[in-house]
Each structure stands twice: as structure tokens, then as C-alpha cells.
Amino acid sequence: MLTIKNLHANIDDKAILKGINLQVNPGEVHAIMGPNGSGKSTLANVLVGREEYQITQGEVRFEDQDLLNMAPEERARAGIFLAFQYPVEIPGVSNINFLKAALNNVRAARGLAKLDAIDLLQQVKDKMQQVKMNPDFLYRSVNEGFSGGEKKRNEVLQMLLLEPKLALLDETDSGLDIDALKIVADGVNALRSPERAIVLVTHYQRLLDYIVPDFVHVLSGGQIIKSGDKNLALELEQQGYGWLTEARA
Amino acid sequence: MIMNTLPTMQQHATPFNLQNNPVPAGEQLWLQQIRQNALQHFVKHGFPTTRQEDWKYTKITPLAEQVYYLPTRTQVSAEQIAEHLIPNLDSYLLVFVNGQYQTELAELSGLPAGVILCELTEALTQQPALVQAHLTKIAATAKHGLSALNTAHMQTGYFLHVPANIKLTKPIQLIFLSTEQELPTTYQLRNLVIADTHSKLTLIENYIGIGSTNYWTNTLTEIHVEDHAQVEHFKLLQESQSAYHTGTLSVQQGAHSQLNSHSFALGGRLIRSDSDIVQTAEYVSSELNGLYLAKGKQHIDHHTSIDHAQAYGSSRELYKGIIDEQGRAVFNGRVLVRQDAQKINAAQTNKNLLLSEQAEIDTKPQLEIYADDVKCAHGATVGQLNASELFYLRSRGLNEQTARSILTFAFANELLEFVNQIQLRNYLRHCIIQQLAQDPTILEML
Amino acid sequence: MAATQPQLTNLLSQEYQHGFVTDIETDTLPPGLNEEVVRTISAKKNEPEFMLEYRLKAYRHWLTMTPPDWAKLKIEPIDYQAITYYSAPKFKKDAPKSLDEVDPELLRTYEKLGIPLKEQEMLAGIAVDAVFDSVSVATTFKSKLAEKGVIFCSFSEALQEHPELVKKYLGTVVPHTDNFFAALNAAVFSDGSFCYIPKGVRCPMELSTYFRINAKSSGQFERTLIVAEEGSYVSYLEGCTAPMRDENQLHAAVVELIALENAQIKYSTVQNWYPGDKEGRGGIYNFVTKRGICRGKQAKISWTQVETGSAITWKYPSVILEADNTIGEFYSVALTNNLQQADTGTKMIHIGKNTRSTIISKGISAGHGQNSYRGLVKVLKNAQHARNYTQCDSLLLGSRCGAHTFPYIEVKNPTAQIEHEASTSKISEDQLFYCRQRGMGIEDAVSMIVNGFCKEVLKELPMEFAVEAQKLLGISLEGSVG
After folding, report:
1. What is the 3-state secondary structure (H, E, C) of B220-268?
2. What pLDDT sits at residue C467?
3. In angstroms, what separates the C-alpha of C457 from chain A's closest C-alpha?
4. Residue C77's closest CA among C196, C189, C164, C180?
């Protein structure tokens, strides 16, 4: 589904990604871990087309398409979703209007008809229940004045509605208490299916107790320095990243 | 400060002729030409009037109607000047009394080699090329009649040149003292500062008037802040309660330079203070702070203009006013971001406290933005002391007057927080309390 | 943003949608202005003597005035002798008595503009006065309003039917000497709307006037007068469009609002005059004087405006808070794209005690548009406990536009509480990216963010108008971002 080959990316002429290789197939859950500043978030942002990063080398293919040549909205419509680490606030734009615009654009790309207001509201309310969000949030401005946890739940709500083929979650677990973490994990697990893939970017193993990954990759210095199964995450939890990064040095 | 009458020696006084400027003997031709052009400009345009947008709220017709006289020599002793100095401040010093430079009162010992600090007329003879290259190069004659008048009639003032890489550790104190005189006198003061690349300096201009004479100070200070230079500028106005003070600060800043200018307008019948900053290169930082305390029949007008002509600049302004009795204050702050001057960050705040029935404030913060990738904000407020804060203090046993004094001073105190120099800050605090006519014991409660 | 720019540029090039011309026979005066023209206009309308005298007084005063000095506007001098001061569709009889007598071509024009004038087709709850060039062609729901004692008719009709009311209030808020364009309007205004809400009546429906400039090189000078008697309430809407023409056309209207004790007037405008083309050719010069006075205690006047059209907009809907405890509000969205210029804002004059005013202004500049907020908050000596809150936000789309803020605050009373805040910034890249990551195109994303930016103002509009205004913002931005 997603094939990353020798990907290099810079920001402000500083190299962040220095040759990433990764293959993600439908049905798989990958966890990308690594110390702060290793390039985890950069990888997620490059995949969705953030323009402040310059791609200097490499290739990314998503279902036979050259991902790097697509506009951000084209990637979204193709089925890539990023749950942002810091979701932005959009004053004056109500959550429901935002969801409607997003969903209808994505549906149109899949050849589906626009949802009418009643169907939309029903769908949204169902999913909101799933992430235990109060329906009042629909009429508030997007993320404005939301707490950290509410923002993250709003991201998961959007993900559940847009039903992406590839969901990227950038530190979605950070700053969450244990109850919120379970809600987020339940949301992600609900999305798991043989057709979909999930990539979790996280600093801690904690999230992986609730969303069990098929593969764990350690990113350090802009490269994947080790890959393994879920046990690798447990090992990292006990020993930290030091033994890996030192061994390399 | 204790009021003190210094001896005056008024000799055959010469009236100040607006239309004619006697050129000092032996003055260079280029300067004569500049004076002549400025005079023509003034003769043509005259004094600003309230029909001009920038003078909408400030009438200076009394200046045009009054006959002023040119300064005459006044002799003062070091002891007499001592009481006007900032206590305990280790500084370089130049003294001007009644518009005349006092050579023998200067304190320049320890000035690093290469630094020139002297009277402007001396610099004209010692460093003619340097002066010619910088004088009138920032302050546009055309801006308003008073700048033109100053250029046409400039009498004296200070000159400072700090060469590249020299960082002055001691501040420079500049005293402009006006004593009791028989006739209304005008001082057309012209100051010129050149801070070369990577230099650093602090200027404290202190305008003090004693007695009740009607005099008029018209100053123009040009500061060239070259690349990477840092200039800290203070202007204290403690003119006499009958005096007029019109002053312009014109600054041009080079790349990565920093200017902080602080205005404390306390004394003077009418004060008009203009600060015009032009950021001529990228990564320039400018900060302007001001405190004005208008009471009695004082009229205090601050106009600021920050011209972000290049990208990546920042500016911050905080002006606060306390207006009591029949005082009137004006604030007009202009922030201009020119086309393609992207990534500008500009913030401006003006806050005013009105304390009496007759007090009046006219404020106009303005933004003119021609570039899109900018963050600019301004805010202005007019209000009173916070009722719940007052109540809180009174509920803790303070009488109302004390509570008011504390809160009023606290309002002003924010401006002192920008003053790092401890002796200067103490001095300013003392001056502010005196102008507010408050019991100094409130200091203990702050 | 490199990748997004071309797409944004596409977005911003949508055309003006109301630019068609109605082909209709008209009664048009030759261009030019003199005392005879003023007399002719008055005679055509069979006006009472006082009206002619008022016009002549205004005209003679106008002759002594000079056009305003445009602080921030670039404008070619206007040739006042090249303008046609009266143009009216020719009617078979004197004037249509009912909609059946109105030329079907005119009815079709309004239908095309989305303003059906046949009552059965109309949005229930909105009465419309349709002004076509110099005259009112139809006023709907008149009889239903009359049941409540509400007078809603064209200005010409008011002069025939209720001259005493017109005489009592005309020029009392905006005197004929007020400014250059107000004087010109007082001399030559041809029609407009008149509303009178009697004591204690809550007007049962929204009243609206739809202004249409059609004739070539004609000016439109309409006059609106709204009087709300004690304890009454009225919500009034105003919409405007004009055909696309290469030359500039002048629109110099005067609106006067009078609110007596406990009365409330809510005045909403969606202004979509032809803005000119991308090179700045043509477009309406919209020089309007709008002012309301809260003459009785507890009266309230709210102005809400969405200004997307006109080559140049120059208007400052104002409120004089004369009586105690009165309230003035101003909510504004002004959008300038291509070479449009807008200089707009408000004046809040606090005279009475405990008067309150709120100003919310949202300016959006795109293309080479120049957008200025100019406002005055004035607290006079006896206005104890006056309050004002002002918020001016500007959004910049593109590096060739400008946003300017000139708030004047003059306070002569120490109990006043005045707060002014202003900010200027570009559209947030993060917000734009967030929307795009959720699958929205740039156009949709920009339009959504801009609408969000304007929400505080749009929510003040009556529902039907708000929807219209949102669409208009989207359309007016097309071609501008990048």
C-alpha cells in the first residue's frame, strides 16, 4: 500500500530524514518509535505533504501513485489521514461545518454522493458516542478552546468519519490520561481491518498496550535503525533508546 | 528637587527672528546651504496647524504669537548642577544651561579612545566630514515646520560618535537646564549620534526647567544606529510649568540593530514629542516606551512612527498616560509595514487613566500594512482605576487616597520595569512620585 | 506555499454575477447639474414646496463645498456635469399602483437577482421596496404592514401621503450641510424608502430595499428615512447590485435613522455593487452617509454591513447616542479584491449617560485591494459611564494588498471605559493545511476560514441574508489568494 524508498527530507536546509525505507501493507499496524528529534513527526508530515519540508531524494508510492507529486488534499482524498500532534484552532468555523466539508470532499473522490444534513448528523453523532464526545462540540469552533485531550478525540472522530485507507497518528497519545488513551485506542482499533493500514508515531510504549502493532521500527538520526515485532517496544520500554543508538555509534 | 534660582546674566537680548537666521561666523558653506533651504521651507509652510492630521489635537499657536529671545550666557557652578544629576550614577556628562554648552562642567574621563562626545559646534570644526555625512540625513525637513525651523536655527547640542565594536559601559548623561530668566527664550537644540556597527551605548537626555519662565525648547535628535549596534535612549522631560517643549527623535536603523527609546514626559506646559524610527534593513528591533503625566493645564502629545521598510523586523511600543486636573494628552502611534517587508512582528499598546472631570485624552493608534506575512496588533484603552482593586486595598485597611495613590503609581510603574539601570530607575521613580504629588511612603507598599 | 499559489489564483478569478443590463425604456434627464435639474427632479415627482426649497438650499450649499480630501483612497476627479441625475423606467400610466402594472421586464430583473417581487413567491416575512435607478418600482406587503400602522413605501410616495412626517424628520440626523456627498444627495435624490413604525409596534416582518443601478452613466442618489417611535422595533435590510460597465458610476446615498425611547432599529446591508474588472476598470463609487440617532432613552441602533462590491467604498454608518442608556452597534465585514478600495468604519458619539457602543470590524484584503478601517469613538463631557468596545481584525491574502486601521478615540469624561483592539495577519498556513489534509480544496478551505473569521459579524445578519453574504464572500474572493 505504502512504499517508502530512500527518503531524504530537509527543513531550512537541515537534513532531518536521511534515507527512510518502509513498506506498509493493507491490514498492518506499524509503530514508529524513537527519541525526541529523531524525525518521527517529520516523516508523518512529509507523507501528508507539508510544504515547509524539502524532499531531496527518494520516492514514496501509495497504491501505485507517486505520493510526493500530489497536493495535500489529493493525498487526503486518496485515503491518507494524519491525526495531528498539535491540531490547529479555526475560529468561527463550526466543527459540524468542517466535518461536512471534509467528508463530502472525500466522499466525492470515492464516487459517493454528498450526505444530506440528516444522514450526516446521524453518522457524526454515532461516531461521537464512540469517542465519548459531547454533541455540543459540533457547534463549537474547530478545536477552539478544546483541552489537549478533547483535541485528540476530535482528531480520532474525524478519522472514524473519513475512514482512511492509511491512518497516521502523530503522538496522538501524548498528554492523555489513561481514560482518554483507552478511548483513542478503542477508536483506532475500531478502524482496523484487512483493507486498512495504521502507522502510529509515538515516543512511549504505553499506547502499544492498547493498540498492538504488527511491526515496530526505531527511528534515530533520520533513519530506521531497527525493526522488530511488538517485543521490540517492550525492550525499548525497559532499556531506553541508548543501547540502540550507542551500538550504532 | 529643590527649586533653586540660579544667577542669570541677561545681556542685550536678541529677539528670535523666525524669518531670518543669523549664520554663525565662519560656518561651512554646506551647512549654510542646509540652513537656507530649511528656512525657505519654514517660511513657506510656517508652524503646523490643527488642520494638519498630525497636529489635529495640538495647537501651537502660542508659539507663533510669542516673541522669543535668543539664549544668553549663564554661568553656573558644578555645585549648582550637581543637584540636577541622577544620584549615584556613574556616567559621562555634558551640560547645557539656557541653551549654552558649559565646557567646564563636562565629565568625560575614561571615555574609550576613538569615542567623540562634545558639543555639535566643536564637532563641526574637529570632524567636519563625519558631521556633514550624517547631519540632517535622517530628519526630513519636510516632515513639519518645527524640524525645518530647528535645522534653520540650530544653535547647539551634543555630538556623539561611537566607533565600531566599542561598547560603552557607562551611560551618557545630558543635562539641558533652563533657569529663571527675564525674557522668554528659545533653545533650538540639535543633537547628532552615530553608533557604528557593533557598538553599544546608553543616552540619558534630561530636560529640566526651574522657575516659571516661558521658554521654548525645540530639539531634534538624529541617531544613526548602524548594523548590529545597540542604542538605549532615555528622554526625561521636566521642563518648567510654563515651558513649551517640541522635540523630535529621528532614528535610522541598520541590519540586526536594536533601539530602545523611553520617554518620560512629566513637566512642561505643552509637550510635543515625536519619535520617528525607520528600519532600513532586515532583522531590526525597535522598542518605544512612554509615560506621560499631565495635570494642571498641561498638554502632552506623543507621536510615534515606526517604518518597517525591510523584512524580519520587530517593534514593540507601550505608552501609558495618567491625566489629572485639566490635563490633556494625545497619543498617535503609526506602524507602517511596506510592501515586501514580510515577517514583521509589530505590537503597540496605549493605556490611559483619566483621573478628573476636566481631563481629556485623544488617542489614535494606526496600522498601515502593505505586506501580507505579518503579525501586527495594537490596542488602546481609556479608563479609571479598577474599582475592585480599590475596594480590595480599602478592605485591607488603607484609606481611599492611599489606595488610589498606590494603584496610580502601579499603573505608571510598568514603564520603570524596562529600565535596567538601577540608579536611573530610582531617580525616575522619585520624579514620577513627585509629579503625581504622592506620598513617597507608598513606595514601601509596592 | 509554492505549490498552492496557482490554484489559489484560479480560485479568485470568478466573475461578478449580477452584471447584466436590463433593456427597458427610460425617462432620463441629460447629464449635468444645475438649479434647473434640481427643480425638474422635484417637479417630476410633484413634490410639496418645502421639499423643493430643501433641495435648492442643499444645492446652493453644495456649490460652496469642495470634494473631500481622500486620506487613503486613490480616485480620479469626478466630473459632476457628466453624470445623469435622473433616470426612471417609463411607465405606461403615471406610476404602477400594483405589481400587475409593473413592467414584466423589471419583474424579471429582480427575479434574476433572486428578489421575486410577487408576494406569493417571496420569502415570507420580508417586505421589499425595489428601487431601480432613480425610482422605486414596487413595494410589497404594504397592506399587511398597514394593518399594524407601519408605513413602508417609497420616498416619493411618502412625500405625497405623509409630507408632515418627512418634513419633521428629513435632514435632522444628516443635515444637508453635513458633507459634500450628503449635500449633493439632498439636492438631487430621486427616491428611496421611507419607514415609520408607530409607538409600541414590533414590525411583523423584515423590511428591505433592493437597490439596482441599471442606466448607463447615471448616478444613484437615494434617500432612506426610518423613524421608530417609542417602544417599536424594526429590522431593515438593504441589498445592492449594478451591471458591469467600463466607466465608474456614482452612488451617493443618505440614510437617516431615528430611534425614540425604547425603540430598536436593526439595519443590515449586503452591498454588492459592481466592483470593476480585474484591471480596475469601471465599478461603482459608493459614497454613502449613514447615521442614526438614539433620541430617546434606552433606544438601540445596530448597523450590520457586508461590503463586497464597489470600486470604492466610503462609508461610516454612525450612531449618535444622544439619550441616556442608549446603545449603538456596528458590525462590519469589508472585502476588497483586485483593485477595490474600501475606507469604512463608524462613528459612535456618546452624549447621554450610560451609553454603550460595540464595534466589530473585519477587513479582508486580497489582490491589490486596499482596505481601511476608520472609526471615531467620541465621549463628550457629560456622557457619564460611557462604554465602548472595539475590535478590528484584518486578514491579508496576497502580498500586494493593504490593510489599514485608523481608530480615533476622543474622551472628555473620566468615567468612560474604552477598549480598542486591532490585529492584522495573513491567513494561517496551519489552518489551511489542516483543512487540506482533511480533503478540502484550497478554495473551500480559504472560503471556510474567511467565513469563520467573519462569523461574529455574519451572525448579526438575518438568516436569509447571512447565507447570501457567506456565498458572496466566497465568490468575491475567487481569484484573489496567492
Report:
1. EEEEEECCCCEEEEEEEEECCCCCEEEEEEEEEECCCCEEEEEEEEEEC
2. 74
3. 10
4. C180
Give the tens place of pLDDT for each residue, C75-91: 778 888 888 888 776 65
Grid coordinates representing B237 are 522631560
Chains B and C touch (3+ CB pairs under 8 A): yes
Chain-chain contact of C421 with B377 (C-beta, under 8 angstroms): yes
Most confident residue range from B32-46, B136-150, B254-268, B361-375: B254-268
Q: Name chain A's partners: 3 or more CB pairs within 8 A.
A: C
Q: Do residues C358 and C300 touch, judged by C-beta distance below 8 A?
A: no
Q: Sheet harboring A53-62: ordered strands across?
A: A14-24, A2-11, A53-62, A65-66
Interchain contact B/A (3 or more Cβ pairs less than 8 Å) = no
- CA dist A60 and A69 (Å) reads 9
pLDDT in tens, A103-114: 988 999 999 998
Count contacts between A and C (CB, < 8 Å). 84
Distance, C-alpha B217 to centroid of its chain: 11
Task: Indicate the helix (H) or strand (E) that contains B315.
Answer: strand B314-323
Q: Hey, what's the torsion of the CAs at B261, B266, B267, B270, to 10 degrees?
A: 70
Give ipTM to 2 decimals.
Answer: 0.86
Out of B359, B366, B381, the one facing C406 most closely (by C-beta) is B366
Helix (H) or strand (E) holding C445: helix C442-453
pLDDT tens-digit readout, A225-235: 989 988 888 88
Q: Cβ of A240: how many Cβ atoms within 10 Å? A: 11
**Residues of chain C positioned with their CB less than 8 A from the CB of A87:** 434
Give the dihedral of Cα atoms A134, A135, A139, A144; nearest 10 deg.
Answer: 20
**Tally of residues, chain C:** 482
Q: Phi-psi region for residue C217, left (φ > 0), alpha (ψ -120 to 50) or beta? A: left
Asked if pLDDT for residue A3 goes beyond 60, the answer is yes
Please tell me the distance from the alpha carbon of residue B303 to that of residue B364, in angstroms, as a whole number: 9
Domain ranges of chain B: 5-281, 385-446
Chain C positions in Cβ-Cβ contact with residue B351 (cut-off 8 Å): none
